[in-house]
Amino acid sequence: MSKKTWSPDIFDSLFQENPDPWDFEKSPYEQEKLARLLSCLPQEPINFAVELGCAVGVGTKALAARCTHVLAVDGSSTALALARDRCSHLKNVSFLEAFLPEGYPKSAVLGCDVIVISEVLYFMAQNDIKKLVDYIMETLPPSASVVLVNWTGETDTPCTGDDAADCFIQACHPYQWLPVHAERGETYRLDCLRSVVT
């Protein structure tokens, strides 16, 4: 298992070989996971959501139905082109190419209500996950939420899904952001974090 964060060219190659390499659009696993993610979002109206790792925009489209505005971020220009095409009819979605953690768009996400990080963290080395937490915590208001989704099956990535989620959650503790909801599917876990500072 490689311990280095996967680079953008790896993802570009994957999306160039197959425009939906993880079958986001049709896989029962992906559909169930997305439904569970949406059910964990705050019930009150969501003004501004940020999706880190939007891939081909399937989740983006679903988020757009729940939010006044969605900023969808991905490090792969190939994936972003596909996502833009999928969501071209949606006026409340904008896209940004940025590779995490260093490219985390601090100014663009200021004031967001929710950050969704689905199937992204385990592609990152643990030190980069910790950096991402630091960047996120600089930009989130105490009223916001962070929703994580991670595959928990076998994977040849820098972290397992469980290790990646646990690393993120532990790095949030000093900022007094803690899990307020956690659940496990057959091959994924979902964690929702909020600030305990009022």
TrEMBL record:
Q: Which GO terms describe its biological process?
A: methylation; oligosaccharide biosynthetic process
* The keyword Methyltransferase is assigned to this record: yes
Recite the UniProt keywords alphabetically.
Methyltransferase, Transferase
Which positions make up the signal peptide?
Answer: none
* Pfam families tied to this protein: NodS
Q: Does the keyword Methyltransferase apply?
A: yes
InterPro entries in UniProt? SAM-dependent_MTases_sf, SAM-MeTfrase_NodS-like
The name of this protein is Methyltransferase type 12
> What is the species of this protein?
Acetobacter tropicalis
